[in-house]
Amino acid sequence: MRVLFAGTPEAALPTLEALIASEHDVVGVLTRADARKGRGRTLHPSPVAATARGAGLDVRTPATLKGEQAGDVRDWVRALSADVAVVVAYGRLVPADLLDVPEHGWLNLHFSLLPAWRGAAPVQRAVIAGEEVTGACVFRLEEGLDTGPVYGRITEAISGRDTSGDLLERLARAGAPLVLDVLRSVEDGSVRPEPQDDALATLAPMLSAADGRIRWEDPALSIDRRIRGVSPAPGAHTTYQGARFRLGPVTAVPEVTDLLPGHLRATKHEVLVGTGDCAVRLGQVAPAGRRWMPADAWARGSRPEAGTVLGAASAMNDDGEAMS
C-alpha cells in the first residue's frame, strides 16, 4: 500500500523504519519542524525528519494542518493518493476534512490499552498510577480524543523498576510489527475494528514540570512511581538549599521509619530521605547546574548538615525559575 507517515520523536522510528523495509511504499512523511537545541540554540531536525530524509523520502514540516495557512501541505496530502496514513506521536491535530483522505484513514499507534489512558502521556500516567500491565493499540483517528475503533493491540508488563522511558522504548519496538500486521489485515480486508467502550476511558493529559515536583509527605511507593513515571521527562525534582535538585529513581527502605518527610540522612554509602511512611534511598541526583551523579558521591562532596530538609521553603517555582 501507499503509506503516508506522520510522527516526530524517537518512539516513532521503529515503525517508520519497519515501513521503509516492508513491502509498502512510504510516499510522504509529516513531522514537526526543526527545533533549536543545546547551548548554541542551533536547529536540529526531529528524529523522524532525520531518518526520513536519510532514506530519500519526501518530508513536510507544517506548523499546522488546519486552515488556509496549511493550504499547500493539505493539497500535498491529497495529491499523494495514499491508501492509508500511519501516525506515531506526530504532535499535530489532523483536521476532520483530512481524516478520510486516505482510503483507509489515519491509523494511530497509541501506547496504551485503549480506552485506558487517552491523551498525550499514556505511558507516564500508567507508571505513576502503579499499573502492572499496559500495551499498545492501533486505532483509527476520528474527531474525538483517541476514541476511534481499535484494529489491533499488544500487552506489555510494567516492572517495578521501569521508568516511562524504559517502557516507551519497549512499546515502540513492539508496536512496529503490530502496525505491519494491521496494515496487512486492512489490505486483505480481514480486520474487524473493535469499538471502544467510552465508559471505561481514563485520560492521560500532557505532563508539566509541576508533575515532577516531589511531595515528601506522600508514601514512599507513590514517590517511587512518580519519579519513574516522569523520568526522563519532564523529570523529578525537589529543592536543596533553595535550588532545584533533580532526582532519579529511588528505592524504598521499609525498615527506616524514623525520618520525617523530606528530612535527609547521609552516610558514606547512601543517602536516605523520609517520606509519609518509610524512607527512600536516593539513586542518581543532579544538583542545580551540575550533571547526574550517584547520591552518595554528591553527599560526600556537599556534606549536607544534620537536619537538612529537601523541598523546604523552596525559592524556585515548578518551572525552575526564581520566585519573587
TrEMBL record:
E.C. code: 2.1.2.9
Substrates-to-products reaction catalysed: L-methionyl-tRNA(fMet) + (6R)-10-formyltetrahydrofolate = N-formyl-L-methionyl-tRNA(fMet) + (6S)-5,6,7,8-tetrahydrofolate + H(+)
Binding residues for (6S)-5,6,7,8-tetrahydrofolate: S112, L113, L114, P115
Alphabetized UniProt keyword annotations: Protein biosynthesis, Transferase
Formyl transferase C-terminal domain boundaries: 207-302
Enzyme class: transferase
Stated role: Attaches a formyl group to the free amino group of methionyl-tRNA(fMet). The formyl group appears to play a dual role in the initiator identity of N-formylmethionyl-tRNA by promoting its recognition by IF2 and preventing the misappropriation of this tRNA by the elongation apparatus.
PANTHER family listed in its UniProt record: METHIONYL-TRNA FORMYLTRANSFERASE, METHIONYL-TRNA FORMYLTRANSFERASE, MITOCHONDRIAL
Protein name in UniProt: Methionyl-tRNA formyltransferase
Annotated gene: fmt
